[in-house]
From TrEMBL:
The keyword Ion transport does not apply. Keywords: ATP-binding, Membrane, Nucleotide-binding, Transmembrane, Transmembrane helix. This is Thiol reductant ABC exporter subunit CydC. Residues 13-297 form the ABC transmembrane type-1 domain. It is a multi-pass membrane protein. It comes from Marinactinospora rubrisoli. Gene3D superfamilies: ABC transporter type 1, transmembrane domain, P-loop containing nucleotide triphosphate hydrolases. The lineage of its organism: Bacteria, Bacillati, Actinomycetota, Actinomycetes, Streptosporangiales.
Amino acid sequence: MIALARPRGARFALGVLFGAAAAGAGVALLGVAGWLLATAAQHPPITALSVAVVATRALGVTRGVTRYLERLVTHDAAFRTLTDVRVRVYQRLAATEPVRRFRSGDLVSRLVSDTDAAQDLLVRGLTPPLVAIVTGGATVAVCTALFAPGGLLLATGLLLAGLAVPLAAALLGRGPGRRQAAARGELSTALVDALYGAPDLIAYGAMDRAVTRVQRADAELTRVARRDAGLLGFGAGATALVTGLTVWGALLLGVAAVAGGSLDAISLAVLVLTSLAAFEIVAPLPAVAARLGAVRAGGERLFDVLDTPPAVEEPEHGRELPAGAVDLRVRGLRVRYAADEEWALDGIDLDVPAGRTVAVLGPSGAGKSTLAAVLFRFRDPDEGTVLLGGADLTGYPVDEARAAISGVPQDPHVFASTLRENLRLARPGAHDDELWEALRRARLASDVEAMPEGLDTEVGSHGARLSGGMRQRLALTRALLADPRLLVLDEPTAHLDPDTRDAVVADLLAATRGRSTLLITHDLAGLDRVDEIYVIADGRVIEHGSHTDLLARDGWYRRAHTAAR
């Protein structure tokens, strides 16, 4: 995490210098004030005090100005670094596959709270210790030159308050910090699950259990926060104790030295007040150390996202897609999600000739959606090849491959915006006439026309204001607007009633006539109008042929067709 700040190391160094100047001005201000008061008590000529009076005013102004500059420079550098961190996280998540590996609520916590851990480290974890080293060393040197025993005592006190106490706070805070990050993620996950799942939870009488889960997560986070507050109290109390003992020790040593004639009274006042002011330098360090456990845990959770291995590799030298229509050839495709799991696809062979419509049919769990994920470039094949236009699909730039092979995934996302903006995701410059034409193809135009605001209708979060069938047809409309080289439709009729399903399939096949189309479905509707059908089960092709050919055989397709009548 510290390495993330390396590009702005000069800014942080400047912030440390300003911080050291502010802290040094604060210490010097109290030391000069002590000298001024002790000297004034002896009633010298006013001219003897004029320099100290001016110095006191100058140090007061310097302290305020340099403190402001220190905060300005360090926060500016930290926020710029934080921007880079967020961009890296967003770029990583834009690859889509890491999103599927984390719970949504936990992912929100990683993006917000755990990303801010970098800010805590850079602002509170770097500058104060460096400032303490620079200013504390200078203060000890001055006090040692003034009175060696007092300087050595001050050095001991600063080491205890600035090193021993923070180390103890860091050790005690390691476990609570880790638990706090985990508890925050659990609370966020429980809240998101309860909010977005509220209709189903209420319908099945499970809302009380969901609320109880939120309460348990909140209670755990509160308990850990109390422990964290206790650590902060320990650090503040221990620092106050060391400060008091050191100042009292310096005072007693100084009084003895004054009585022995080795130290004058004015130097005693300067020594004691300077020692008192010096502990302001190390006062923030125990709180910083107590937070290091939480910062470290947040950083680990953040880098879990950044270090998630990509499921899709970007080629170093991507080739260009050929012009015109392209065919798809799949040979020996094998995919599995973990080394110890069964193959989701086990040697699939598949052809989609240019301009033809091919269907992939099979029961749930057969591997159809895994095939769609490979074609959509959500993951790479483990074995085998996918050839698009005669070249390996993985050799094309990822974005170009996704533009060439696009369509409707099994669970398409609807954004919390208007119908028009959701449609324009597929074609940003599309005019309303083009949007309405695509809506008519997907049999959604009449529903949109019935809405008072038409294309300006807000669909709500995740399309909550639309029915399941309308959300699916909205995704179909986007697929038609995208106009890819190969249109892949993964379960396009899910959530539709039988009449609408048959109509949508008929319109869809009519709209895609003459273009390369792969229809992935478990439904037999409309398959008599496709050119070829592949039946897969357990990750393998078990039948292949036209609708007529498959009906003539005594196989899975014929039995499923007979059962559906």
